[in-house]
Structure formats: C-alpha cells, structure tokens
Amino acid sequence: MSGTGPVPEIDTSVSHVARIWNYWLGGKDNYPVDREVGDRILGMLPDVARLARASRLFLNRVVWHLAAEAGVRQFVDIGTGLPTVDNTHEVAQRAAPDAKIVYVDNDPLVLAHAQALLTSTPEGATAYIDADLRDPDRIIAKAAETVDLDRPVAFTLMGILEFVTDDEQAYAVVRRLLDAVPSGSYLAMYDGTNVVHGEASDRIVDVWNASGNAGLVLRTPEGIRRFFDGLELLDPGVVPVNEWRPEVTVGTEPEPVDAYGGVGRKP
After folding, report:
1. Beta bridge mates, 158
2. Listed ranges 6-10, 85-89, 189-193, 206-210; the one with the highest mean pLDDT
3. Is the confidence at residue 7, as pLDDT, over 60?
4. Distance CA 88, CA 80 (A)
5. Phi-psi region of 15 (alpha: psi -120 to 50; beta: other; left: phi over 0)
C-alpha cells in the first residue's frame, strides 16, 4: 500500500463535488454548504439522486465485468470520490484477489479518507495518488509505482471528464492515458448529458457552476462516444448508465438517466 502524505486544509465554506455526491448517496462526509447546494439541485430535479445511485452501480458492474470476465488485474480509478460501499478495489478483488488498484483524486477530503481505500487482499495492492486529471503524465508516472504498464490496465473515469470543460483537452487527456498502456487495456467512463431532462439539466449545471464547485459541462452522447475513438466498444455501446448490462429486472424497465457511458478495449 502507498501512503498519502500531509492532508491539505479542507474549506468547509464552499461546496465541493465529492461531498455533494456523498450526500446524494446517503453518506455522512459532507457539510451544511454541500447539503444546501445538493438540496437546491434536488429541488430542481429530484432525479439527480437516482442518477447518483445509477452511476455508482454502473461502476460496480463495469469493474466486476472487467475483473471477473475480461481478466483485467490492474485498475486506475481517476476521480475516486469519497469512500462508500463497494469501492473499486472491493469489487475487483472480490472477483480477483490479486487485482491492483490505484486511486487518483485531488480533493483534500478524499485524501483525508484515503486510508479507507488503501485496504487490500494480501495477494493484491492498492495505492492513492494526489493528482489532477489534467496532469495525465503525473498520473501515469505515479501509477507505474504500483501497476505494470506493460500489462493491460483499465482506466475508470466516472463522471470526472465533465469537469474538463474544454472538449479537446478532455479528449487529449484520455488519449495520453491510453497511449501509456498496451493492447488489451480498457477505458470505462461516463459523462452527464441533457438528453433526458433537457433544460432542467442545463439549469442544474448553471446552479452547480455558480455555487463554487469546479465548473462542469454536459456532453452529447456523440461527444461521449468520441472518447472511445480507436477502441473496440463493448456492447451495448454508449448508453444511459443504468442501461449498460443492467441486472435482471422484473416489471417495468427503469427510466434512463442523464448520464451516458460505456466501456472500450484498446486493440
């Protein structure tokens, strides 16, 4: 396991992405300012809480598939967020005890809680990198201390690329990450859209961006699909996250959510 170093001071006067998400998922690692912004957004569109849960389950299904069925043993989870139930290492090592997982985030509160993410099976390993997604070279260099970049790696970027608001920069970051790993590696990601709720989703982005959080941008499904250019896109392609290989349901199919994602394999 890798340590984390000094923990930066946490500003509780300004809402933060990871803490609001934690609040929507029913966690306790948040502050009044986070709950205030979270409630404002829920008041505008209650479906956001369902999106938060659906996106978490998407991560779980993706990691299980990659570890249990695709044989992946190395994961780099960028934009980790706060620890919750069934974190990436728990799902991956349940399927493959020898799996290695590197978490990447640059939120002081996530860093403060990182020790909870640094548990591991004896056969596997976990590590935490304090780094920004916009610095893929640092991520690659530090990840190489835990994972073997000559063997396949799965990058998971769940709801994080939307905070890189310049499209070309976002696509370049993904290309740089994938250039560093061999054939048989994977990209799994999702981003927010306004396909389902239209103007309501756009208004939420305005509130979010005005609240002191890192600015975000919504992308079209076609824009999200561009992240997988040059990759072999797994079925069912880029779809609402709750429609990506869902668990068997009885009765009415779930309504789609405003987050589209997919999984691609580097040929």
Report:
1. 190
2. 189-193
3. no
4. 9
5. beta
What are the backbone angles phi and psi of residue 125, rounded to the nearest 5°? -160, 155
Buried b (16+ CB within 10 A) or exposed e, 23-52: bbbebebbbebbbebbeebbebbebbbbbb
The DSSP code sequence of 189-230 is EEEE-STTTTHHHHHHHHHHHHTTSPP-----HHHHHGGGTT
Q: Which residues pair with 127 in a beta bridge?
A: 102
Per-residue pLDDT tens over the stretch 149-190:
999 999 999 999 999 999 999 999 999 999 999 999 999 999
For the segment 122-140, the average pLDDT, to the nearest whole number, is: 96
Q: Residue with structure tokens 């493959």?
A: 96
Helix (H, G, I), strand (E, B), or coil: what is residue 36?
helix
- Give the number of other Cβ atoms within 10 Å of residue 86's Cβ: 14
194-227 pLDDT, tens digit each: 998 898 888 888 887 887 667 889 999 999 999 9
Radius of gyration of the chain (CA): 17
Helix (H, G, I), strand (E, B) or coil at 125: strand
Nearest to 105 by CA among 92, 123, 117, 97: 117
Q: pLDDT value at position 120?
A: 93
> Is the peptide bond prior to 236 cis by the omega test (within 30 degrees of 0)?
yes
Per-residue pLDDT band at 252 (split at 50, 70, 90): low
Give the closest residue to 22 by CA, choosing from 52, 46, 43.
Answer: 52
Tokens, residue 98: 């020898």
216: left (phi over 0), alpha (psi -120 to 50) or beta: beta
